[in-house]
Amino acid sequence: MSDAKTMRESGSEFMPKFDDKGLLTAVVLDADSSQVLMVAFMDEEALGATLESGEAHFHSRSRGKLWKKGETSGNVLTVEEVLVDCDQDALVLKCRPKGPTCHTGARSCFYRRLDEGILQPVNS
């Protein structure tokens, strides 16, 4: 095992591993219920803005720029804790949402489940 790999997987230094597009996956959970609220991507700028401000920022792949969750709706995500996976290429953000998380107005972006090939509403 290389020194960098050992440090990334076992050390205490934060060494985020961005993919070839400069992104890593961020899974957002409700800090109280652990309900999955959304999945998004972060680049170095979004990660830095999140850590500095305490509010979730992401990289908008469709717009190609920094996006603060709730910047227009006011439904910000206050970050309570950041969990880092074993090889530091994915994060879990435990957040306190101010209002709905999904752009559809749903509490979570995961408001449907697949049931025998048909999408059914999830009761939350």
From TrEMBL:
Binding sites annotated in the UniProt record for Zn(2+): C86, C102, C109
Gene3D superfamilies with a match to the protein in the record: Phosphoribosyl-AMP cyclohydrolase (3.10.20.810)
InterPro entries, per database record: PRA-CH, PRib_AMP_CycHydrolase_dom, PRib_AMP_CycHydrolase_sf
Catalysed reaction equations from the record: 1-(5-phospho-beta-D-ribosyl)-5'-AMP + H2O = 1-(5-phospho-beta-D-ribosyl)-5-[(5-phospho-beta-D-ribosylamino)methylideneamino]imidazole-4-carboxamide
Cofactor stoichiometry and binding remark: Binds 1 Mg(2+) ion per subunit. Binds 1 zinc ion per subunit.
Keyword Ligase: no
UniProt enzyme class: hydrolase
Names of required cofactors: Mg(2+); Zn(2+)
Alphabetized GO MF terms: phosphoribosyl-AMP cyclohydrolase activity
Annotated Phosphoribosyl-AMP cyclohydrolase domain residues: 38-111
EC number(s) on file: 3.5.4.19
Keywords for this protein: Amino-acid biosynthesis, Cytoplasm, Histidine biosynthesis, Hydrolase, Magnesium, Metal-binding, Zinc
Residues that bind Mg(2+): D85, D87, D89
Subunit structure: Homodimer.
HAMAP family: HisI
Stated role: Catalyzes the hydrolysis of the adenine ring of phosphoribosyl-AMP.
The family this protein is said to belong to: Belongs to the PRA-CH family.
NCBIfam families documented for this protein: PRK00051.1
UniProt-recorded name of the protein: Phosphoribosyl-AMP cyclohydrolase
Organism of provenance: Qipengyuania xiapuensis
